[in-house]
Amino acid sequence: MVNAVPDPAALIAVARAVPDPEIPVLTLGDLGVIRDLRVAEDGTVEVDLTPTYTGCPATAVIADDVRGALRRVGAVHVRIRTVLAPAWTTDWMSETGRRKLREYGIAPPGPAAHAAGGPVLLAFSARCPHCGSADTREVSHFGSTPCKALWTCRSCAEPFESFKAL
Amino acid sequence: MSSVRTVPPLAAYALALGDDALILAQRLGEWVSRAPQIEEDVALANIALDLLGQARTLLGYGGAVEGAGWDEDDLAYLRDDRDFRNVQLVEIPNGDFAVTMARQLVFSAYQCELYAALERSGDATLAGLAGKAVKEVAYHRDHATQWVLRLGDGTELSHERMQAGLDQVWPYVDELFDPAAAASQLPGIVTDPATLRPAWERYVTSVLTEATCRTPEPRWRSRGGRDGLHTEHLGHLLAEMQHLHRSYPGATW
What is the CATH number of domain B9-247? Predict the structure, then answer.
C-alpha cells in the first residue's frame, strides 16, 4: 500500500461498515456515529466519531475497531476525534438500521422529542418487534445498554428491548 | 496535589461540575446488586454511567484548561478530599431508596436547567457537552419523578418514607444555587447558578405537590463544597474509589 493514495470516500465506507460492538446487526453507518473522515497531507486518517451517550463504554471499543478496520485497508496512522456537537440523535439512524433492529428483536426508536427550548420527553408506545402489536408497556426506563429500555408485549407476552428515542 | 493550587476560573468551573457528576456516579454505583428491583440496579447503573461520561469530559477539559498536566484519571484518582469541588449533596450516603430518589429528583432537575443554559455558552466544549448531556439528564429526571410520585402518593408507609427522604436531602439544596466565582469572571460562558433556581423550583414543586409531599423547610443548610470543605463521608468514598489506582499506580487489565 506504499504508493496508494487513500481515498476518503472509500475509507469512510470502510469505517461505516464496522459493526457496532454491542448491537452487532447494526453498522456504525446505520447508527450514524461516523460523522466525517479526512486524510491529512502526511497521510494520517482523521475520523470524527460522535458517541451515542457520553458515558457509553462501547465508544472506546468503537474507536479501536475503526482504527483496526482502516489499518487493514492500508491506513498507517489513524486519529479518532470525539465530536460532541451537534449531539447524536436516534433520528440519524438509517432506515436499514431500523429494519435490522426490528428483525433482531429490538424495537427501533420513535422520533426524538428534543424540541427547541428545552428537553421534552414524549411518551410513545414501542411496537413489539416479535408480533407487531402496539399493546405494549415499559417495564423499565433503562436496559442492558445506555441506549435501550425494557418493554414487554401484552399480546404475545414476550419481553423485548426498545431503542430509546434520543 | 496541593490544596493551595490556584486554578483558572474556567478550569475551576469545569472541575466543580465534573466533580459533582463523578461523585454522584460513584454513589449511585453502590446501589448495584442492592436496589429494590433488578430493573433499578440497571437503571441506577445506567444513570451513573451517563454521569461518569459527563465527568470524564468535564475533568478532561478542566485539566487541559488548567494546563498543569493533569488528565481525567489523575484528577479523579490523585486528588485528596480538600481538592474536590463538588457540592455536599452528591457525597452524602445513599440512605434508603427514598433518600436516593429525593436526591435524584433534586440533582437531575438542577442538571436539566444547568445543561439547558450551558447549551448557549460561548465556550464550545461546555456547550457541546451540555447539548448532549441535557438529553441524558432529562431522562434521569423523568426516572426520579416517577419514583417520587409512586412512593409519595403510594401507601401510608411509602409516603412517610418519601417525605423523610426529602427532609433528609433538602438542607443540601441551597448549595447548588450559590454564586459561582466563575460566573462573574466569565460572563456568557458560565451560567450564574442562581438564575437556574426559579425553573428548578417550579418543576420540583409540581412533582412534590402531585406526590402529596410537602416541600421541606430545613433549619440548616450545607455550604463549602465548592471551596473544598466536605462532610466526613467524602473521604470514605474516595478511599474506596481511589484505592486501586493509588496502590497499583499505572495498573492496567
Answer: 1.20.1260.10
